[in-house]
Every structure is written in structure tokens, then in C-alpha cells.
Amino acid sequence: MQSKGKKAEYNKVIPFIPEGDFYYTKGVEAFKKRKFDIAIKWMKKAMEQKPKDPLYKCQLSIIYTEVGSYHKANQLLTEVLQSSDYIDCYYLIANNYAHLGLLYDARKYAQFYLDKEPDGDFSEDANRLLELIQIDEDIDDLDLEDEDELLIYQETAFYHMENSEWTKAIPIIEEMIDLFPDHILAKHEYAQAIFYTGKQNEAIKIEKDILEEDPNSLYSHMNLALFYYEQKNPAYEKHIQALLNIYPIHVQQKLRVAVTLARTGNSEEAYNRFKQLAKEPVKTHLSYYKWYSICAYNCGDPGKALDIWEEGCKKHPRLSDEEGPWNNK
């Protein structure tokens, strides 16, 4: 028989006070499951326990980047650099600036990173970022008059393609290619237009030839993923895998990746991409509302799907002629 003192000792509750590493681990687990709101809460708790730990701040910045809070991410990374020489911060800051469209600052920090860590973990990413910035600047070097004319062609072709009016789009794109032979996007648009008017083999050859010259061609991967998926050719999966590792700088490219993933049955990944898009730059795209709503429905959020669909029908009345997301599983 136990004494009273012994029983009292056994009944004592020793409070468990987790340290920062526990919270950090929980945050990383939530992040891997793409439960970003929960991940942020855990990571903030970790920082409360160890406010000077640079790893916690860097990880929280990465979560902020994932949800599109680029300013918050850079604020944390700047704090880390003020108290330590955590070299990876330079690349992470550069990446956030690129997403914000601040290309001068993006280039500066990417170069800082490469100067300090030419063979670092992010060196390949930093070099790729610098290449993308250079491409963007090359496009900006067009004469203003030429740029205005190109924009007219692009907008006209875009309108027809958004409405699946492929035969109307083709002559516009052909003329654009003649006038602006270095505008590579026009060739991708042409491939897509002729694919959907029956010239499938020719369209695939165009993209394969471009991809052979530039294995990192984002538009070639997107078009080939779509083309092979339409043909029920399992080769599409290789191009989807390439897209899953690409997070473009420009909003239009982000949208196009999301739409491509949605159209090839990758609803969950596409839904995450759609949620990170700023609506203002893409609200002129019928495809934004159509595929975002379909993905929301397929991912178990019918209320949001309906809201997106109804808003899309108001902005693009033609969308109401199509079947709603509940018929596109």
C-alpha cells in the first residue's frame, strides 16, 4: 500500500514547455504539407523561444515567399543579415525582389550571393534568375513604336486564343512572326493554335525543336505537356515534372503554368499556384476564372469555386456559355 506522500508525488503534473526546436519541427512539417497558415504560427512560436536564431527567421521568410508575402519575407531576411552573415539570405532576397518586379535589386542581391558563394546551394538558381532578368531587359529594349505595334498583335491574338478562336488567331500570329521574328512567344502561340486546328504533329515538332535549342524553355514545356496530355501520351508527365520545379517571375507566366497544370489534371498543385496569384493583373483572362474555379471545386472547396465562377461570368459573359466547375471534374 502506497503512502500518501508517495501517491501525491505520482500525481504531480510536470508541465512540458517546448523549446524552439519543437515548434520549428512542427512548422517544417506543416510547410511540407502546404498548410502555410499553420506553418507560420508554429514558426512564430519558435522565434519567440529563440528570437536570435537566424534559421527560424529564414524558414519563416521562405513560407512568406510561398504565400506571396514578399515584403514580409525580405524584412525578416534583412534582420538576419544585420546580425549574422547568413549567405543564403542574399539569394532569397533576390528571389523576392524578382517576384515584386524590382529587377535592379533582384540582380544586385543575386550577384552578391554569387560573389560570396559561387558554388553555393543556390548558385544555379541565382544564375538562372540573372538570365531571366536579362531576358526581361532585352524585351524592354524594343523601340517604343515597335513595342506598341507588337502589343496590338499580342492583345488581338490573346483575345482569340482565350476564346478558343484558333482559326482567327493563326493569321494574326503569322503576321506577328513575320514582323517580329525574334519574338519567340509568338512561335509558341502559333504551335498551340495549329495544334487545336488539327496540325498536331507539326505543333509538337515546333516545340521539340525549340526545346532542343533551349532545354529550359518554359513555354515549350507547357505546350508539350498540353499536347501530349490531349493525345493521351504519357510523355506529358516529363514536362509536368519540369513545370512543378519552375516558379516564374512574371504574373502572366505564373498564370499560364497554373492553367497548364489544371488542364492536365494536376488540380491540387494548380490550385496552390492560383491562390498565390494577384488578381488584378490576370482578371482580363477568362482562363483564370475558369480553371481556378475548376481547381477549387476539385480540391473540395465548392463555395469558393462558385464565387470565382460567378465573378468570372460577370467579367467574361462568354464563360456562362460553358459548363460550370461541377461538370469538369
UniProtKB/TrEMBL annotation:
TPR repeats lie at residues 20-53. The keyword Flavoprotein does not apply. It comes from the Bacteria. Keywords: Repeat, TPR repeat. This is Tetratricopeptide repeat protein. It comes from Oceanobacillus kimchii.
